[in-house]
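User: Please predict the structure of the protein below. I'd like the answer in structure-token form so I can feed it into my own downstream comparison script.

Assistant: Understood. Taking the following sequence of 213 residues as input:
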Amino acid sequence: MRYLMITSLVLILAAGCKKDNFEKPKSTLTGRVVYDKNAIGVRSNGVQLELWQHGYALFSKIPVYVGQDGTFSAILFDGDYKLVLRQGNGPWLDDADSIDVKVSGTTSVDVSVNPYFIISNATFTKSGTQLTATVSIQRINNNLPLEAVNLYIGNTNIVDQVNSIARASVTPDISGPVTIQLTLPADAAYFARVGVKTAGVAEQVYSEVQKVE
């Protein structure tokens, strides 16, 4: 019995060491979600891509979250993957097509999307406790109307519809520059950002975050 107990303990320790010695993924996949070669601003960790790898018994998606600046990254094993947009999870038209990605060492890929709107020329001006944002908005797709243009402010550089301390909204004519004003809660430094909400679409497209002194 004592011999059996010692043998079992040796086998358990050996199995544990083997498990601990499994190779970990070391390659890096980086990229951007883009339109016309420009990154699309989104909500931090609100938009998700999916990676799939065929040929293994456990076939399940690898979620990849997109940062607010439109970039993403994942640590993976070398191999061939399918990269797809998660359906209904972005301020753009759904696209069921996948991108073939061969990961080897450091690999980079851009994912092209077809947004409903894009934002450009965002400026933020503070006068006393009044913050004025001006942006240009271009409609890319005509199938859904614009619902609102939103100005968000936050205490950190992560700012969006979820991460904010104050907001203001307008439903403007976008044939020219759009102006939104907001009264700041106190005289301090803030981070500001403008989001464009498409009717019936949960996620917004955003301008870059700017610090307002």
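That's the full token string. The longest helix spans residues 2-20.
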